[in-house]
Structures are given as structure tokens and as C-alpha cells.
Amino acid sequence: MTNAVKPAETERDPKKFTMAPTATKPELEAAPPKPANAKPPGIASASVPDTLSALHVNPDTGLTNAEVDASRKEHGYNEVAVKKGHPVLNFLKKFWGISAWMLELIMILSAVLRKFSDLAVVGGLLVINAVLSFTQERRAAGVVEALRKRLQVSARVRRDSNWQVIPARELVPATSFACGPET
Fold it and tell me: What is the model's pTM?
């Protein structure tokens, strides 16, 4: 007895495959023909010449400065936007979470039971935890920012028929660039 994929299951849900015992060899079915209006493959799976023609790029000259400026206006710089919150709001977020809620619940119970010494100790722990967490996070963000400034990635690109080395921030879609150890 052999195991085969049930065709009925795969037709309903292509991501779901189940194995079922069968007494005979599975019959091979011909793949259905592709419809005439099927979309061509995306740029990610297309060949290099197809990609260059889809992006309207001449590999011998690269992009012109005017094309680069137009693309930059449309897409922006090649960088990750850094979102910085207000420091006071970042500090107040330290009082929001499971561990903070547990300490706050202990503070409420201590107040209800009139155990003010426990209330003061737990309140102090909550504030100290928030201050330490906030300062550690600020230091880590400062280190990441310093590393980001020190790490300037550059790329060798073809612009106006000339190879140039530019900061990676200046890359735009459809840029011809060189890969390899000599770049």
C-alpha cells in the first residue's frame, strides 16, 4: 500500500496536503493550461534583461541625473525612517505592562489593607524600575545612533555612463550597481 496526496484536498486548499493510503499507484494528472490573461512574473522572479526592460533602464548608461531626481521625489531616500517618541511619554510607558500592573495591584491592595509601609516599598520599586529601564533604553538608543552614524554604507553605481561610488542612501529603484569584492 502506498501513500498519495488526495487531489480533492489540494484543489480546495493548495496549502493543505494530507496523506491517504491507496491500494494502487497514483494517477498523474496533467497540469491545467495557463489562462491567456495570466500576469507575467514579477520583477523579483524575472530575468535580468526582462527586469531592465520593465524598469526602462539601459544597462550601458545607467540612470541619468534627471531620472534619479525624479525617482527620489517619487520614492524618497533609501533609508529606514527612525521614529522617536517624546521622552516623557516613553517614561510613562514604563508603567504600562504586566509587571508594572502586578506592582500597581499590590500597591492598591496595600492601600486597601492599610499597609502603608508595603505601599511605599512597592511604589519605590515601581519607580526605580521605571527609571532604570528608561535610562538603559536611552543609552542603548544612543549607542545604536552612534553606530548608525559611523557605519556609512556606499555602493558603486552607474550613472550617466560612469561608475561612481555613492552613499547607499542615494540609491533609487532601477539603479545599476556593481556587486563583488572590488566594489
Answer: 0.49
